[in-house]
Amino acid sequence: MLNRRFLALLCCCAPSLAWAIDLQPNDIVAPPPDITAAQVAFIHTERSDFYINGNKAANNARIPGNASVSSDLTLLRLTRSYTLGQLPAVSFIQTTAGNIRPSGSIGSFGSAEGMGDLSLATAIWPYANHISRTYLGVAGYVFLPTGSYSNQRLFNLGENRYRTDLQIGFQKPIYRNLDGMIAFDTMWFGANSQFLGNNQLTQKPLYSTQLGPSYRINPIFTVAASYLYVAGGETSINGVSQNNMAQTQRYLLSAVAQTTVGKFTLQYGNDLQVTNGFAESRRLILRYAKAF
Question: Which pLDDT score is estimated for 60?
C-alpha cells in the first residue's frame, strides 16, 4: 500500500508534467510582420526518481522508489505575426495530443491519452533593434480547460482548470555571433473542483527564470543552451496545504537548422535538481516549423 504522504504529493505533482513555458532559440527576436507559420513538435519525456523535500523516495521509508512516468506528446501550433500600433507582435494558438504512462509501483493507476489543453498567446516587443540584435519582448498566455480529463484518474492530458502566464524576455549580442537571453515569467492557476472526485485543488503562483546563450554558426545552423529555474506552485486540496513547493533546476540543449523547406530543431535536456515531485531523466524534442 502506498504511503499516504507519497500519494498526496503524487496527486499534486501529476499535472506538473506540463508546467513552465520554455522559450526556443531566438524566440525573443521580433519577427517581421505578416508571416503565418505552422509548427509541429514531438516531445518524449521520462521521469523516474521521486523527491520529497529534496530527498529521494526510499523503499525503507515505505515510499516506493520504483515509480516512473513517461509521456509522448504531439504539439501543433499556428502563428501569425503583425504590427500592433508601431510595435512588432505575434499571436499563436496551440494544442497537444498524446499519452502519459505511469509504471512501477504506480502502474495500476492507468495510462491517459487524448487531447491536451488549448493555449493562446500574444507577444509584443516594446523594443526591437534588428541592427544591434537587441530585443525586449512581453508575452501573455492563456490555457483553456479543453483537454481530456477524468476525475477518476490520477494522470490526465488536461488539467480541468484555467492557467495564465505573463513573461518578459531580453536578448542582445555577447560577442559577434553569440547572443545571450534571459526571461522571467509567472504562472497563475485557477481551481480544479473535480480533483480525484469532487475535491478542490488550488495552487499558488509558479515563478520561472531561464537564461542561456545561442551561437549562429552560419546562416543555416544555430546551437543554443538554456538553464531554467522554477519555484513556487505549492498546492492545496480542500484548503489543506500539501507542502510541495516546486524548486527545480534543469537544462535544455538545442540544435537548429534553417533550411529552404523549413526550420528543424532537435533538443535534449533533463532536470538537474528537484525538491518535490518526479525528476525528469530525459527530454527529447523534435520540432519542425514552416512559414508561408
Answer: 45
